[in-house]
Design a protein that fits this description.
The structure is a homodimer. The N and C termini of chain A lie far apart (52 Å). Chain A is α+β, with helices and mostly antiparallel strands. Chain A is built from 11 helices and 16 strands. In chain A, a hairpin with a 2-residue loop joins strand 6 and strand 7. In chain A, 32% of the residues lie in helices and 28% in strands. Chain A has 2 domains: 11-282, L-amino peptidase D-ALA esterase/amidase (4-Layer Sandwich), CATH 3.60.70; 290-410, Roll (Ubiquitin-like (UB roll)). In chain A, strands 1, 2, 3, 4, 5, 6, 7, 8 and 10 form a 9-stranded mixed sheet that branches. The longest helix of chain A is centred in the middle third of the chain and has 21 residues, at 262-282. Chain A is globular and about 70 Å long. In chain A, helix 2 packs parallel to helix 3 and helix 5 packs across helix 6. The interface between A and B is large, with 69 and 69 residues.
Amino acid sequence: MANTTAAPQASSIAATDGGVTAPFGFQSAAVHCGIKAAQGALDLAVLAADRAISAAALFTTNLVKAAPVRVSQRHLAATDGRVRAIVVNSGCANACTGEAGMRDAATMASETAAGLGCLPEQILVASTGVIGVALKMDLLTPGIRAAARSLARGKGDEAARAIMTTDPFPKERAVVVSTGVGQFRVGGMAKGSGMIEPMMATMLGFLTTDAAVAPALLHRALREVAHDTFNAITVDGEPSTNDTLFAMASGASGVTIDEAAYPALLDGMRAVSRELSLEIVRGGEGATKVIAVTITGAPSEADARRVARTIANSLLVKTAVHGADPNWGRILAAAGRSGAIFNPDRATVKLGGVLLFENGLPHDEAAPEAEKHLQGQQIAIEMDLGFTPGHTATIWTCDLSAEYVRINGEYRT
Amino acid sequence: MANTTAAPQASSIAATDGGVTAPFGFQSAAVHCGIKAAQGALDLAVLAADRAISAAALFTTNLVKAAPVRVSQRHLAATDGRVRAIVVNSGCANACTGEAGMRDAATMASETAAGLGCLPEQILVASTGVIGVALKMDLLTPGIRAAARSLARGKGDEAARAIMTTDPFPKERAVVVSTGVGQFRVGGMAKGSGMIEPMMATMLGFLTTDAAVAPALLHRALREVAHDTFNAITVDGEPSTNDTLFAMASGASGVTIDEAAYPALLDGMRAVSRELSLEIVRGGEGATKVIAVTITGAPSEADARRVARTIANSLLVKTAVHGADPNWGRILAAAGRSGAIFNPDRATVKLGGVLLFENGLPHDEAAPEAEKHLQGQQIAIEMDLGFTPGHTATIWTCDLSAEYVRINGEYRT
């Protein structure tokens, strides 16, 4: 950051087409290797910069880390955050696969590096799919070579499809950020849709920008943005072995992010991340509704998040929303077991803005109106814990349907 | 305890018929008040001792405590643990009902006391059912009077049915404990079956014994026994606003529990509690299988419980078991996010005794045998964390089925 005293620049954001290759300086390719059984289903993507550029990543906090997570952590450290490309496959998580899995992840990097003409350490690796199954390297290696030969701009949508597992639709977004010193772009793609929980939230997320950002600053921005986007969603309270959020900054726009431009970078990254993470929730396994749980009046932000997460992960709340049942008692009970300390008699609960609980008592007359809200697809749960001034947090989740059970009872067998 | 140096006495346990009224000195009655809509469905029970006797209780740790919980806490304190009866209704939890709810719970106690001819403080109160709905006192009051008039021995089974909500079957058990100084009996009944989670586990549990036990010792025994029975089960990770485990000791057997006889009391209470808590799991909402999650080789007992609970509450594990999918990766991933620290490469995972993961690698050849185990109804998940000597814990849970979603999406509306 050249100038630490500069005032934030005014900036504006506009949505634009495309995803990870909307920013300049990036190309992608997606191919069918055969890891997914379905004929022609894309299951491998390479997202490459034109040269080694700034990169940062946030990795799962699960103690059990998949081989690609561990390889990516090493490569980021070894290159001080200067990488050329990310290679990612779906259909197999390469997790709990021992030393052979580590070798396979390293081979994914070295094969990609060979195709691009760079060092293996300049490649980051991601995998998503079933745990405990070895990668079919005889299928993957020719796939990587084919992908490296077919890189192009404007194929981000294929990459977004290639990273899907049980996702019902691909997720990509891009914005143009206009600042006083020029325009830059932020693009992204992500996949869900089970094992989603705030701690390192999504299975896989990829952000690109053509702003010039030093690796340390990119990492700081990624952490800040993830806090209230990818780390503020939950489908089933299950942070996975492979969760990773990547960011790459090509600098191809000519706009350099200094202290004054940093808020504009955050705005752009947040806009893309917010939409992608909400899309992950919307595409959650078996989901029919998106639920925003907003806690206000909490004694601390950590308490606000704790209460919001407990409500968002409550099976009884999620099934009640699924059945359009304005069962505010389950919301209050979930808050009560969250670990946060508050006085239930001073708390309020609203569904879709309809006040259902106040001063220790229900507003039964409002239940029909709240039920109407629950029949929609965008559900707002609001709870105030009664502290003034209080802290606030929002966690996004989806309802729990019989379809979730079907998907997860039949996923592997 | 008269003699703190006495050796434990040899004792033996045998199952016997009945439930809470199997021990001498207890009577019960159950009636239909009309709180449950179904014609003639029992929804009120009174469990009474012949005189004021020792009592103890464990209450929910949820910050949001229902009125009957708060009234029972006060009454136990006011009487130093000497009570005459417990009055309990199903169909309405009397939770989140404000001051009116507190008055209603107090009225349940005073009406019962009037019927029995004792002080209101000598009555404990419990309610289970929907949250946030006021008790219909115009139905309940005549019901309590009718129940107080019809107390008898040998009707424990009706009481066990009167406390059910979504429970698929009533749960009662009794044993005879034979010691060197005579026989005493322990009986019990319990109800589930949603909002079940270890912290104060079951919705409602009632234990009776005709041993003579001082209130403080009865409380100690209740805590000790609950730790690996009622507090070691989970259906959906949701400790409720009403969870309570009661114990009453009539002394009618003539056997006094001193230090030497204390292990025999624990054995008897544990035998009844173990079976009742497993019945709660077996009758969990939508449950088709009972799952025992046993962790060995943990760095501490708390870590063993933490890992076991995280696995037992994992939606992905519970749905995999439901679908008979030997997906040990989900077990390992749940353990990895539990907060306990261990080396995954030194951990082992077994399903039904079949080793599926060891030395960081799967035993794929064993999957068909593990799948056969999962097609049964008694599922054993075992995980060793690799510490020697290690600590152990077992948590019981059930699978997650589409039926759970149906029950909880349609429960209220």
